[in-house]
Amino acid sequence: MTPEPRPGHDLRLVVPALATWLTAALTIGLPPSAAYTVAALATLAAATLLLRRRSSTGRRVPAAGRLLPFLGRLRGRVPGSPAHAPRRERARIRRPIRRLIQRHRPRGGTGGDRAGPWPERPGRTALAPPARLTLGVMLACVAASSTAVGLRSSALASGPVSQIARDHERAIVEAVLTADPQVGSRPGRPMILARARIEAVLLRGGRVRVRVPVLLVAGDRGWLGLLPSQRVRLNGRFAPPRRADLLAAVVFVRGPPTPLGGPSAVQRAAERVRARLRQATERLPPDQRGVLPGMVIGDTSRIDPELAEDFRAAGLAHLLVVSGANLAIIIGAVLGLCRLAGLGRLRAPPLAVLAVLAFVLVARPEPSVLRATVMGLIGLLALVTGRSRQGLPVLGAAVLVLVLLDPALARSYGFTLSVLATAGLLVLAPAWRDRLRRRMPGPLADALAVAAAAQVAVAPVLVMLSGEVGVVAIAANLLAAPAVAPATLLGALAAVVALVTLPAARLLVWPAGLAVGWITGIARTAADLPYATIPWRGGGLGAAGLIAAAAVGLLILRSRRLRLLAAAAMTGVLVAVVGLRMAAPRWPPPGWAMVACDVGQGDALVLASGRGGGVVVDTGPDPRLMDRCLERLGVRHVPLLVLTHPHADHIGGTSGAGRGRTVGLVLISPSSPGREARYTAGLATRPASAGQTWTVGDLTLSVLGPPAQTPRVSEPGEGTAANNASIVLVARSPGFSALLTGDIEPDAQRSLIPGVPRVQVLKVPHHGSPRQAPAFLAAAGPAISIISVGKENDYGHPSPATLDLLRRLGTRVHRTDHGGDIAVVRTATGLAVVTRR
């Protein structure tokens, strides 16, 4: 039998949803007047397309003459219309309508009317073509979306909060948290981020009531104990948001919060569920204890950052956030239980709605949760009404409703990834599944199609964010898929049971933990594979390039001749790569004395200290990158680990330095005791002081700074103070000398000038920032300068002024963003530099 053709997709709601979404994304950040102008122009154009018609004779048709033929076409389709009335009643209704149409009919038309749906005739008013109608509806959505953005922008641009932000002033305000505070970090600036709504500004003239959203940036960990809906008083410095975002201001808060009340009863109940689930998982292994709450209710507070990075590299990061899959599992379970209990079609959906709303409160209304919630509720409504459900219309309706209610979602990457993944499952997966079923068993085809469709759909956005293409993501998702539903369902059931009895909940989380253990094992294994991710250009150009590459690949797959040419080309490239790999110098080069690891925007240096050993100075921001650099160098033992100062871009990768290696003493800055404890747990630490000397094999390290009287740094935002408290070292071994400067800035540099020796190699301070003391760099007199810096970083490092200064001093400059790992090698004639890239 010939399989029936697959029905086409219903795009009637998708097109308006896309118009609404794109309009909001483009108009956010524009002045309110510009948004209103867009709305007015779109409204005028939509009205022209939808209402302004002409007859076939070219005459303009009055409104009644346009509308009534349209209504006549609907007769017989709408219950209660004349076609459904008795014959006599139908004739009575028809006469005045016919007379009105005759009165407004353009001259020159042919006569003769009849009841019922009328055929198009010369001289009659024609309905709008589908293309014109579609364009008119799109313009109407553009008008609605730009109006919503304009109204929101007008509210944010007026009032005292925006004025305080424009003036960069400090103010005391009362705010209500709208989301859980999260630990975030920029290189060198660990911070706590919290979304809030300011409701009152305390000015000299009194208390002014407002209601505007802001982003709080704090350094005190006391903020992490707060819950959404909790009211606090804070004193902060206001600044306009850097990105085009629907925020009134960014508030930099110093010190702990001042609570003015507790959270709402609903949030207290939600937090109780989250807390009880955390208690139920206490006896699980660390990885399972952190991942299970994240998979079930989006609580990622206990996930190891290194494990989270492995999930990202393996393409499994979507499992650590609540999405439509969680809601689908919960709705399916509730409806199944209702069916077993004998509840009918009308009584089961309300219970499922209650379960969905309760889950959203516990999991927090994140963008992906909101999108999935609206889709689930629309699907349940379709179930109650008996209407057939199609995925794309439901997705379009969800996007349309959410973006109109909250235009800020249009620029949310989480919302975008969620929508694209769902669209991939609806559009790509069915066709791919049918093709794969011809060559493999049905269940395997289903799983492979789902994993591939979701990953392909979100790949352009992931490339924009990370600048990498995941190679193992599809395989990792395929292997992890069987464990996702058991882990989520058992975890959700344990969260409910934990409210009543913890022992029973602990029994339930045990098999859920086994499923999570399988998933975490896949994540770690996949992330450790060579070339698990391939570097790719980030940003919009990278996404466009990936889409173009996918289009070319699709054309090649559809042509046998092109497939043969592509196979021949790939074979030639593979042979060339293997040949170049065999002919290229091995890494590390023989005689290396120091290597600057390419860890992105951060510092990580390795000094040779004997066979299999290496002294590590800073570890960069990423444990995975630090581990890979040491693995390439063959370092199995780290006798001394130096953390110059407690900024994330220098100590974030500490766990990677100890992965599978023995670590001896850890030397830390004396200005921040305890600040590195999170990264050095279980390791012996000691504060450094000027004058200390450490000898490891033939390597000698002398500490130049900071001085013993360096003031302590109490706030993570005090960047200059922490930078100037960096440990400064002079490293010497036969035929090699280097000055390692951490992130010291001009004040500290000038204070060290009297004791700075002349060296062969300089690690340029602070990634080549413009804040340099020329006399300090000149005093070191290096022949080689190394700048550890990330590609296209947000700080503009290295500064062109610093590069010019180094060139004037006659030093050769090498950068990790250009050369990758940089090795300084001892040769018979002196030092040479070899780059890995």
* Inertia-based shape: globular
Look at the helices and sheets and give the structural class.
alpha/beta
Spans of at least 5 consecutive residues whose pLDDT stays below 50 are 54-58, 60-84, 108-128, 713-718
* Major beta sheet summary: 8 strands, mixed
Q: Quick check: average pLDDT?
A: 80
State the distance separating the first and last CA atoms: 57 Å
Report the C-alpha radius of gyration, rounded: 33 Å
**Helical content band:** 40-55%
How many strand elements?
Answer: 24
In brief:
With 837 residues, the chain is α/β, with parallel strands linked by helices.
Report on the architecture of this protein.
By secondary structure, this protein is an alpha/beta fold. It has an 8-stranded mixed β-sheet with strand order 15-14-13-12-11-10-23-24, with no helix packed on it. The longest helix has 28 residues. About 7% of the residues have low confidence.
Describe the secondary-structure layout.
Blueprint: H1 14-27, H2 32-51, H3 63-74, H4 87-104, H5 130-157, H6 160-166, E1 170-177, E2 182-186, E3 189-203, E4 206-218, E5 231-239, E6 249-253, E7 258-259, H7 265-280, H8 286-297, H9 305-313, H10 324-340, H11 348-363, H12 367-385, H13 391-405, H14 413-436, H15 442-466, E8 468-470, H16 473-498, H17 502-528, E9 533-535, H18 539-557, H19 560-583, E10 592-596, E11 605-608, E12 614-617, H20 623-633, E13 637-643, H21 648-651, H22 654-657, E14 662-668, E15 685-687, E16 693-696, E17 699-705, H23 719-724, E18 728-733, E19 736-740, H24 746-752, E20 761-763, H25 774-780, E21 784-787, H26 800-808, E22 812-815, H27 816-819, E23 822-827, E24 830-835
Parallel strand pairs: 4-6, 12-13, 13-14, 14-15, 19-20, 20-21, 21-22
Antiparallel strand pairs: 1-3, 1-5, 2-3, 3-4, 5-6, 5-7, 8-9, 10-11, 10-23, 11-12, 16-17, 17-18, 18-19, 23-24
Helix pairs in contact: 1-5, 1-13, 2-5, 3-4, 7-11, 7-16, 7-17, 8-16, 8-17, 9-17, 10-11, 10-12, 10-16, 11-12, 12-13, 12-14, 13-14, 14-15, 15-16, 15-18, 16-17
